[in-house]
User: Fold NADH(P)-binding protein, putative from Bodo saltans.
Amino acid sequence: MSRRQFARTLSGDLSSNWRSQGSEANAMNINVATFGATGHLGSYVHASCCLHGFTNIIPFRFRAGTSGVRMLKHLGDGTVGQNFDTDYEIDKEFVVKSILEKVDNVINVVGAWQEPTIYEHSQSWFSMEAVNVEWPRMLARWSREMGILRFVHISMVGADLNSPSKLLRQKAMAEQAVLEEFPTATIIRSTDVFHENDFHYSKYLKAQKYWKVVPVANRGLRIHQPVFAGDIGEAATRALYLNHTEGRIAELGGPVRFTTNDYLRWCSECNGTLHLIAHVPKWMWRIGTKLNERLPFHKGFILGTRAPSWNQDWLDRQFLDNCAMPERDPELMDWEDFGIPREDLYRMEEKYFITSLMWTRENPLLENGKGL
Assistant:
């Protein structure tokens, strides 16, 4: 399958050179600050910017430390002068503006899918609404005040003010806030992303390995359309220099749709394990996710617990299909609007097979999954 990175040439045309024309992008002085680059999706957005040869500023939260940004500094040409890391905090206007004054383009991938104050020993003093709604609003306002040319905001498919999911309601409010403060912003709604060690589909693989019987909500009938994080990163990068994306919303999903049961059946075939699932009623899930949020038995709970992936808001989203449907509104953009052929999108079985093997029961090459 052809996986080419496209970049602008000096004449303004799109180049199909697989080397990405990095020198041309540097000569054009394309620079970008990717807020949230140390996250799961943000790291792929930053990697795509590096492949296009952009000059990058990598903001990271000071309290989170430099471990997340360490692996991002060597991307791209691997030399000094392309990636610059700096610390910031979302409530420090003068710090954020000092970053914005050095770039012309901004990508926001910051988001929180769990209320930080709901579990013990949290390392964050910001609420979920502050991260998902107020931060995009402030960043868009400060970007407009600092004369930023292009602003790209990553949202979620299913964002709706009337959604039963708190997260999806906040994503819808963030979209409205961004467009109010920065009318020419590009908003990209993404379905659930997958990559080598994501926080969505890897949890089912972990449950297959350790629990043997996987509990599922909604009888496993939720429809998924997972998209590779690198494809979303490529779309966000191209949105910086495609003028027709200004002030528009895109809904982007993967090339294949399947149910939760179909996914678990495929994983069991890859792992050589039995396909055993348990249909747990919603009221029982509600009790389990509540306990999962409150109990501090998560990785690193002594220094501050990580948010559990199976929480109550995750349970609410299991009864909502996760499908991108740009055809329902002619104003919504699709992959073709970014110059990305749908047949070039990564399928889960192409990129996720190695991750599936990591969690398998018997795999001598990966030391029985102990690497994770």
The two ends are 29 Å apart (CA to CA). The chain has a mean pLDDT of 80. The chain has one domain: 7-369. Residues 250 and 330 are 11 Å apart (CA to CA).
